[in-house]
Amino acid sequence: MLVWTKPGKALTWTAFALVFGVLVLAPFIVVIAAAFAGTWNGVLPSNPTVGHLQEALSGDELASLSVSLQTAFLGGLLAVVVGTWGALAAHGAPGPVARVADALHHLPIAVPSVVVGLGLLVAFSRQPILLNGTKWIVVIAHLVLMVAFSYGTVAAALQRVDPSYADVAASLGASPARVLWQVRLPMLRPAIASAAGLSVALSMGEVGATIMVYPASWRTVPVSIFALSDRGQTFTAAAEALVLLTATVLVVFTLDRLRGRAVEQ
Amino acid sequence: MLVWTKPGKALTWTAFALVFGVLVLAPFIVVIAAAFAGTWNGVLPSNPTVGHLQEALSGDELASLSVSLQTAFLGGLLAVVVGTWGALAAHGAPGPVARVADALHHLPIAVPSVVVGLGLLVAFSRQPILLNGTKWIVVIAHLVLMVAFSYGTVAAALQRVDPSYADVAASLGASPARVLWQVRLPMLRPAIASAAGLSVALSMGEVGATIMVYPASWRTVPVSIFALSDRGQTFTAAAEALVLLTATVLVVFTLDRLRGRAVEQ
Amino acid sequence: MTVQLDDVSVHFGRTLALEGLSLTVAAGETVALLGPSGSGKSTALKAVAGFVRPSSGRIRLAGQDVTDLPPAKRGIGVVVQQYALFPHLRVSDNVAFGLRAARTPKGEVTRRVAEMLEMVGMTSFAKRFPRELSGGQQQRVAIARALAIQPKVLLLDEPLAALDAQLRADMLGELQKLRREVPDVAIVYVTHDQSEALALADRIAVMRDARLVDIAPAAQLYATPPSAFTASFLGGANLLPVETFGDGVKVAGHVLPGVRATPGKELLCIRPHAIRLGDAGVPVRVIATQWRGSSNQLTCTVDGLPEVSVRIDLPADLQVPALGAQVSMVLPAEACSLVPAERR
Amino acid sequence: MTVQLDDVSVHFGRTLALEGLSLTVAAGETVALLGPSGSGKSTALKAVAGFVRPSSGRIRLAGQDVTDLPPAKRGIGVVVQQYALFPHLRVSDNVAFGLRAARTPKGEVTRRVAEMLEMVGMTSFAKRFPRELSGGQQQRVAIARALAIQPKVLLLDEPLAALDAQLRADMLGELQKLRREVPDVAIVYVTHDQSEALALADRIAVMRDARLVDIAPAAQLYATPPSAFTASFLGGANLLPVETFGDGVKVAGHVLPGVRATPGKELLCIRPHAIRLGDAGVPVRVIATQWRGSSNQLTCTVDGLPEVSVRIDLPADLQVPALGAQVSMVLPAEACSLVPAERR
Description:
The complex is a heterotetramer, with two copies of chain A and two copies of chain C.
Chain A: H1 6-35, H2 51-56, H3 59-91, H4 95-110, H5 113-123, E1 125-126, E2 129-130, H6 135-160, H7 164-171, H8 176-205, H9 208-213, H10 221-230, H11 234-264
Chain C: E1 3-12, E2 15-25, E3 30-34, H1 41-49, E4 56-61, E5 64-65, E6 76-79, H2 91-101, H3 106-119, H4 135-148, E7 153-157, H5 165-181, E8 186-191, H6 194-200, E9 203-208, E10 211-217, H7 218-223, H8 228-233, E11 238-241, E12 243-245, E13 248-251, E14 254-260, E15 267-270, E16 276-291, E17 295-302, E18 305-315, E19 326-330, E20 337-339
Parallel strand pairs in C: 3-8, 3-9, 6-7, 7-8
Antiparallel strand pairs in C: 1-2, 1-4, 4-5, 9-10, 11-15, 12-13, 13-14, 15-20, 16-17, 16-19, 17-18
Helix pairs in contact in C: 2-3, 2-4, 3-4
């Protein structure tokens, strides 16, 4: 919509900046400020310090970061593989089967993460599969939650790819495997990279299922932040949050570069 | 990809059904089974009972459901309004501004919900705005988290709408307000309905931010489930989870009907 | 190698996309499948290529039944409408794709790719990506890729539809040249554009509503169309109801000398450019004129036939009658043919 | 009401989409903006409608400067390429949209909508939704909607581009009729199709690379094109380099009797249908023939002009020379004009 008058434009933009500044930017600015705050009694924090950040990068808290990264890469990337495969399988399926597969995959979006966590807790707390207390129950929880997102991203991209490409490749004598590896997957690369970024980012921040199932030996950063905040160590929690933010942005940025390169190539 | 042989097809589908059955369906089946289990010592539960469900629908737990629904509708629907407005405002913006707005909105996806919760906790625990301990801090947390999703959904739909519609409407003498209400918003109705469904569903299941900021008087269902499970009341937690699942599906289904009707009209 | 379709039907869900098509294309022959969108012509091509499975009927290549073979086992070259060049592969790798799939030795691949690119005049573009090519160049690469595997059958699905008018005319010439380069290949050419079919095809199969309407050599189909649909779809003929009297026929009460009545054929078919204005013809009234550069097209109503309007193409050097003028159209007997009325 | 563009330029970011266009369209006049895609013709239309803002220059309607007015204040009827019928409104509500925006009394809206639908022959479709209409019907509704507000200027952006060939010919006739229904309206008609421009426009503005190349009455532009680009884009003329000797000109060494040399004009322009085969003409060799139903098109090389190929349209009743045959082309002086060579 073209706003034709200058004051009209200025007004729209001021309102926009205010609302989004308050809603979206404010929490992050506050967290960053708190991370470096020695004390915060008035409107603004005072006595800046890097002490909280040092705490957040040592001992248990540093271990949490390593746990979070391992979980995100293991769970998130496994989810991309499973989600991509699911999307490819469901794509060729006849109408009704495809619709069921589609509904199945979207279930986790309507389903709260605590329910997934609870389900895994109940299922894996007894024989034949006893995983409760191990890191694998956390990884599986992340895998289950992220599969839906990966599937959705790849399935949407598949919808946009003209089936002619695979048809033509087959007509040129390529086996189904060759068509898959040399035509279909390369053409989905941007979507797969995007699914990987999304999965890893969401996994880095996951709380609901993790908090239900994590063993003491495998505590992710978001859970640490919750624990610190719960104990009243707000500033250390903020420093830890800053570490998490930085790590997430770096990981997503790196994965996004892969995608960018795939497009350019 | 056409799989030309019958055994090939059968194999693909069996593998598909197995993996997705285990990964996606199993947690839900387990939760449902646990909700009705009197005891569960062997592989299968025994002594079926509706006692847990009765507990889940009375007293504090019933209050939680009401809290969750109010939060989801207040926070989720507010998020749709703000997100839609943001998408509309950013759409007409010149290149660089639009890119900044876009990045701004997507920030919350890369940003863990615990960080948002922590930010709100720090920001609203002191003057000038003291909201800690009230339900409003929970509603605002949900609003902040869901705005990103609403914005994304509506912005994607806006990209697909040919700007000619608004142009032609203006050329017919319609004021910008008339163009907005009679042409642009009606054409976005499916996307807005979809954003509403997504926001409410995600809000119903939100844990990360809620657990950081909720006051005792405003405990959502997912937090209750966590608390019950933490106290070892697994079966009651499962029953509560079943209630949450049912409520979420009903709400999403109802919102989806609105969208369906908008498309048909 | 001949392509043979034997009563082939294709369903998409409950939709019948192709109904009982029987058709033979000989080695070295070009058959155009011509029809409006939704006429089943692309579906027929996809059935031959193996991209869709017929719900009934058989498809044979050189006598061998291939109905149950996947596309990879058929050895058919296919060029689809949007070309479907693999976007992540360079031009040379696109052309080499089929050869590599067949595990052709490396030196042979290089040689053959060079030869193909030479043939379509794209040698200097070998290292480009498809997105760096124009529409016409993409089309050439798609053809080179299809021919690299030395198919005995080449299927072309609207290869010119994605190009603009000027380029389309040029590429039509290129396709004619290409035809001469692969004299033994059977070509099936799907198009909705009659001028492509006329310029390229030995025989034209006119399709409509998932069915074959008529098939015949192009010149014969144009000169004496067997049906009203073919008459108007191929060359936009005028169709005028006739009355018979003994051996002769009348249009709007006017005798047409030299045209003989045929039982069951109640429509006179004549091309717009074959009609002349003159004396002692059928009186018509001009209701619209359109200047088209090389000609003027008149649209006229025929006195006594209120339902019919006639199109007449006049050479540009003749004077155009005024709007509303009453003129007399002469229908030369050698340009007239009779077709049955449509029964729907 | 006249439309006046005064040195109008439009930038999209750093891209120059329209460069210094000056153009006047009188009340009752139809001007076609003709050019290939990317020539700036649609941008010019959007600038007049107010959908884009010129980076420089002024636009006037009936003398009043409207450059800074939003589209809603201009009172111009616009029909866009895909019609942009509001999908959530019925046909009658689409047509009524502009009237309601102007707070027209209810009875008047009803009356005027009925009148408009009557004019475009869509009365019985009033209660349908746009998706229930065919392309041609959608186009009629779009026109009815644009004309309902009784604009003095009507802008049409490729209104036939979304239709298939047969329908396009029919709708061209409809547009001619419509033209007569609104005799006082100034019409700007954007198209890439020369036949639409020839059939509808009083004057044709040929555009290329964001600039106006030539503007003149259609017949004049066709008969004596001022530039090589116009000659070939409008009617696909052949362009042959000429040598002058005194007053006369030669093509490939052969004198063209009756054609006078003009300084600075080094190309002979002649339409494919104006060339005849005969004796004592310029010798050419046939390298391709295309049968087009009503004519045969020859592509020939000219002996002594290796860079040039000539297209010749022969009437269908003449015999077609064989491929490779040497024939002699006669260029009638009355069909020849000279244009300057392109300097790029």
